[in-house]
Backbone:
């Protein structure tokens, strides 16, 4: 018997990395999962691996409100309900602040923060009407609380996700909807491959983590299962930092490792 038997989850950014592993872990615990991502081929591969009885999905740009609305409707149409939302879609950028293109800044904030807002908005709209309670889980970041060179867009966007989580929890608790977020540190995913390819940089991250290692998608997925399940029914409005303790120390000085154009 799984911890999520009979439940249905939406996972954004679910075609790779943390989102993909969360989707598979939800399925392993008995849930059915609707995957949203820009990568249609990646969605197809996950559905083929998990089986069409347990997974489905659609291409979704989380910055497009009508697309997010279709995502929620598509999940409910396919699996009959919604119980868990894992709002994971996001990406970063890197530039010294004086050179940061405004268009790139807006895009990071739009995907990471506005996209999370739009997902919560339309997930909550359905969940309030359904009236059976739910768990919404957002992906923040260690960078929500730890400033980093070159991350003038990403750090504020993820700090915004952490605060948005609190506001949503405050508003939605009366409907039995819990809202929490996870703040990962360095996790081995395709999205962090560029960072990990820089000589010495991963070790600099590890040196700041008392646990002494980077994370794996499975680490995040295990915490997501806990937050999605009835094991965490008293928890809401929290951001849980899953970073090997790196938040106790500091972020590596990225300008020492990455070109800044100076």
Residues:
């Amino acid at each position: 018997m799984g911890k999520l038997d009979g439940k249905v989850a939406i996972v954004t950014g679910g075609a790779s990395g943390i989102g993909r592993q969360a989707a598979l872990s939800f399925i392993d615990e008995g849930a059915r999962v609707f995957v949203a991502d820009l990568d249609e081929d990646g969605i197809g591969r996950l559905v083929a691996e998990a089986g069409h009885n347990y997974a489905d999905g659609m291409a979704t740009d989380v910055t497009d409100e009508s697309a997010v609305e279709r995502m929620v409707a598509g999940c409910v149409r396919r699996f009959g309900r919604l119980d868990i939302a894992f709002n994971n879609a996001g990406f970063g950028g890197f530039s010294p602040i004086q050179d940061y293109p405004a268009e790139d800044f807006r895009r990071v904030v739009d995907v990471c923060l506005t996209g999370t807002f739009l997902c919560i908005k339309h997930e909550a709209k359905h969940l309030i009407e359904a009236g059976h309670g739910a768990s919404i889980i957002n992906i923040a970041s260690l960078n929500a609380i730890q400033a980093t060179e070159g991350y003038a867009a990403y750090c504020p966007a993820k700090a915004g996700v952490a605060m948005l989580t609190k506001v949503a929890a405050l508003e939605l608790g009366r409907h039995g909807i819990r809202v929490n977020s996870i703040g990962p540190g360095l996790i081995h995913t395709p999205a962090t491959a560029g960072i990990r390819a820089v000589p010495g940089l991963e070790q600099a991250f590890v040196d700041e983590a008392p646990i002494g290692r980077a994370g794996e998608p499975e680490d995040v997925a295990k915490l997501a299962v806990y937050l999605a399940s009835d094991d965490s029914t008293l928890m809401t409005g929290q951001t849980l930092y899953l970073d090997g303790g790196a938040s106790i120390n500091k972020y590596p000085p990225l300008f020492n490792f990455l070109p800044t154009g100076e």
Notes: The beta strands are 8-12, 32-37, 55-59, 84-87, 134-139, 177-184, 239-242. The mean pLDDT is 97. Residues 102 and 214 are 31 Å apart (CA to CA).
